[in-house]
Amino acid sequence: MATLWTRWLLSMLLANLLNCLAQGPPVAPSPRECSIPCGEKNNCVDIHCNPGLDPRNSTEYSLHWEPADSEERQGISGNTSDWIIRRVQFKRGKLRVWVQAKNQYGSAKSPYSILNTEHILKWPPPKVASHQESFNIYWNFTSDDMDDTCGLFLRRCDVRYRTEAEQDWHEDEDEDDLSYTMDDPQPSTVYEFQVRCSCGKCLKSDWSAIHRLRSTETAPVGVLDLWQDCDITQQGSDCALTWKKLPPTCGLILGYEARLSYNSTLVLLNVSTAEPKGLLVCEEIQCHLTSSLKDVSSVSVSAYNAQGATVPSYLTLPIPGKEKTDQAIHVEMNEENLTVSWDSPSQPSDNLKEHVVQYKQVGCLSGQGFDWVKATTNQTTALFKGQYKKYTPYQVSLFTISHGSEVHHISSVIRYSLEGSPSAVPSFKVFSIADTQVTLFWESVPLSKQSGVILYYQIVVYSGVHRQTVHNASASPQHENTYKLEHLNPEQNYEVRIRAVTAAGPGANATAKFKTKHREDYAHRIVPIVLVVLSVVVICFVIALCRKNKACLPSFYYKVPDARNSHIFKNMHMISDSLGWVCIPHFEPHPKISLLEVVEIRSRVFKSSLEKASDPEGLTTPVIGDECSQMDSQDDKREEAVPEECHRADHRYGREEYSKMVDSEEERDRKEENRGDCLSSSMSGYEKHFMPTVFELRV
Questions:
Q1: Signal peptide: which range, if any (predicted)?
Q2: In this structure, are residues 593 and 687 in contact, taking their beta carbons and an 8 Å threshold?
Q3: What is the pTM of this model?
């Protein structure tokens, strides 16, 4: 409601302002054009004047006249579109005519015009006809009065002509004949003619209706401007063969003949402009083939009519992957003009024939939003005029053509007539999340939604509700769409926003959220590892030192050159190749030694075998043999007499193979003394010489 009220108030104020500006006497009008039309309707009677006034104007206008040699005045007034002075209101001769304007603030009148009624006769325009063979036009009049009044020698006529494609007229004046012949017309061209005539000093008639005439058809001349229409990927499968139509002066074109070379294969296409059959599409200026140029190496096209054909136009298509981009181009673009300039090559080539500059609206089909111009080797600027859409990408490209019709791509850029803010990136993700850094990835804004040249991507990092940092990532196609954020806080929630930025400003945001990981303290893991490594190094160093200096080893080490020479340890699993590092003073391949097993018995003796032995009948018999053999026998029997449950208990509780027995100190000393004597008596010379004594073992 408020809007309607505001509009009404503004309109009232504007109307009052115009009324205020219109206050005051009227401006003096200009003189009017007057004539006496002759013909079937008026027959040279009344005077007609053209007021040329705006009927919406509130000022009143009136036409006034009087004889030029008399004070008698006659006047009419009105606001019609055609003022008429009736024949009965004037006398033949000279009249003084003027226009008067009047309103409430005053009046004004135009300068005087002197009219001679004999000279303001205006005859109707003639009717024009032609002869096709001689390219000649002629005319006649609809009124016989003109022939009777003027005669042949008093008529004067003007002829003007132009081609159908031209806007301006070419005029020949004061033709005293009733015909006109044009010399050297352009072949196969449509011309337009108009004629107007006068009688003596009378006014000239209006121009006749346009009469069209086509010149004689000849074989078309000229060469087709041949080119290719490709999308921005520069791929052959997306290219179409296109050319510009010949001017009408080249004749009426009936069709085109195209030759496509596929390496060693030649394909001939003959397409008619009357029935294209889907292979040819012609617009106002351009034509193009709908077939693909994939795998086509070269093409040639000629235009033909009923009289002949043009010279074929050749084009060798560029090979994908061999384009060179060593020359920059500069583009200035607005909604009406596109100017492209480039630098001259540093090393001019004699093989260079011309440059080609083209533009292509991104997303358009073949033949749409596309144009090109060819420039000589001396030119470095090209200009296009047209209507270019806002916020729409156009690809501008520069090519060169050699004398052998080979095409080379020089450079391409994307430009806009007017830039806007881009859309948001279609995808934005966070990966490789660590405690103090993460990696961001995003997809580029599609070219059709960029609305301008993207200068960079702006990344804003928020920690909570506060903005923390701002980063700018490159938008160059050579850079990957990734960015690493560093120096973050562990176990912290973050929000990251990314947006593309053009010359018009930033676009819409895309948002991603993440939480950094907990910082792991590797000290408690690294320190033990370091200590273990250092210990191993120290042990290895000590072993190596001991192998060189044997003073650090025990005293009995020097008595045994190699423990593996003794059969005592041959069945022990722990003594194998692992003893390879032990210092070996000497080696005896096959020594003759006895089997010796040293076992310290700390178990309770169930029954002493030294006192008595039981037979199956329960009688006590004396022990046979010496004391050492009896102890050995007793040990063997004791081992065999160990209950199975004890063996199972040992495995269950992870204990040693022998049960733990409680002996008195006196029994222990006696057994050890006896066992030592037994060992001494049972060992061979090798073991007695090299093996340690019981005393050494106890020490």
A1: 1-22
A2: yes
A3: 0.55
